[in-house]
Amino acid sequence: MGDSQADLNSYIESVLSRENGEYVVTYSIDTTPEEESAMIEKAIQNGDGWGFSCADYVSDFLTTLDFNHVLIPGDLEDQLKKSEKVTKTKLHTRENSCDQH
User: Which pTM was predicted?
Assistant: First the structure.
């Protein structure tokens, strides 16, 4: 398991351990090294999204993959659910994780 997978697992565990952390949905998207570099650069420029701005920040760097910029988490989720770029969807709960796609 690479460092990025370990970081993702730690993040998921930290969210699920919160009082209101009922579930986490992860979406896998195949990207080229160039696309990854562009997203990382944009994320570094934008800084950390906090509070209710997380969908804004995430969708902003996903614009490098031709996603639309949105402000509302449900709108971001709808785009991800409908996207042909998403190769795998996984639901993580306190009890278990299961593939959705």
Answer: 0.77
